[in-house]
Amino acid sequence: MPETSWRLFRFALPLRISLPSGARVRQGWLIQIQQAEAVGWGEVAPLPGFSRETLDEAGRILQDRLFRLTSFPPEITWAEWAEAVEQSLESVPASVRWGVELALAQCQAARRGKRLDTWLAPDPLPMVSINALIPIDWREHPERLQAIRAAGYQAVKVKVGQHAPKEAAQDVRLLRNLLGPEVELRVDANRAWSLREALTFAEAIADRNVAYLEEPLRDPAELHDFVRRSPVPVALDETLAEQPDVPLHCWEGVAAVVLKPALIGGLLRAWQRAREANALGMTVVWSAAFETGVGTRGLLALAAASHSKAAAGLDPYHWLADDVVYPRLALHPATRVADALTGPWRLNAAVLEEVNEHA
Ligand SMILES: O=C(O)CCC(=O)C1=CC=C[C@@H](O)[C@@H]1C(=O)O
Ligand SMILES: [Mg+2]
């Protein structure tokens, strides 16, 4: 069994655009795990306002778990590996599972001479498309919308929950006109509205060809009712983090699931969700919780391996003004996976503080 060694860093990255919480710095923990010659990277960065665990709590649990890491024989199958890792990380918060599982999975893939995507699937997609996330203040910054259009994104997502339903519907109608009929338009209300408000909104945009509406309801107990009555397809996001054990077949009529491994229980849980959704014919949308290049590359690998043709929500990466490793990830509206996942990378010492080393 090869020795496992690891390094742990704390990072703080400046942002170009504020997080939903208003923060202008993205903070988290970067881990590097080495087993034999193989190296894996992961990040643990709870998202304020969305994660249940804080940065310090996650850091404490992470350090404790790093000291207990085991390595697995390189010849074991993905299923055997997944079961062992799952057990070893039981009851660990989502962001910690995401980071540790990602680093371990990359190590295991590398020991078999593969990348994460090619280890997860024999025939991953070579290209993954990305949707642009429109900043909340797009009306005051038309140049940002202009830049999204000029870059050639085929799918965009806009937040609407900060407005009353009628005003939000006006926004969506205006955006549809500005974007033209071809671009896929997704909307996200982040649980802002009552059932009545959400239905008012959905009816007002029903003829605008919106791909889906994410999480409209303040009271998630009414979501089944909304799904039955809404003229616009519905996607789950927060619900998946809140109800990790409810099988997706209980959500009949839901069109899409937005999978954020950092919030819904880690890489393995998210991978299971993707398989479940594929089997039910629900659209799988991989999405970021404002990860650095390390986590975003992990998401790209998962999107490719799950064969999801839906544009992945990885645009938050562009909101970071710097990254934990260089070279920076080059994300395009259609990104070639092999280019994005092929290193080598070097640490960006300017944004990292080494916390602990164990060899
Ligand atoms: O899904 C995307 O296109 C990008 C990610 C994204 O929109 C979000 C990430 C994390 C928290 C929220 O701000 C938001 C969401 O609710 O989906
Ligand atoms: Mg959402």
UniProtKB/TrEMBL annotation:
Belongs to the mandelate racemase/muconate lactonizing enzyme family. MenC type 1 subfamily. Its cofactor is a divalent metal cation. Converts 2-succinyl-6-hydroxy-2,4-cyclohexadiene-1-carboxylate (SHCHC) to 2-succinylbenzoate (OSB). It comes from the Bacteria. It catalyses: (1R,6R)-6-hydroxy-2-succinyl-cyclohexa-2,4-diene-1-carboxylate = 2-succinylbenzoate + H2O. This is o-succinylbenzoate synthase. The gene is menC. Residues 142-233 form the Mandelate racemase/muconate lactonizing enzyme C-terminal domain. Pathway: Quinol/quinone metabolism; 1,4-dihydroxy-2-naphthoate biosynthesis; 1,4-dihydroxy-2-naphthoate from chorismate: step 4/7; Quinol/quinone metabolism; menaquinone biosynthesis. Its EC number is 4.2.1.113. GO terms for biological process: amino acid catabolic process; menaquinone biosynthetic process. Keywords: Lyase, Magnesium, Menaquinone biosynthesis, Metal-binding. The keyword ATP-binding does not apply. HAMAP family: MenC_1 (MF_00470). Pfam families: MenC_N, MR_MLE_C. NCBIfam families: menC_gam_Gplu. GO terms for molecular function: magnesium ion binding; O-succinylbenzoate synthase activity. Mg(2+) binds at D188, E214, D237. The active site is at K159, K260.
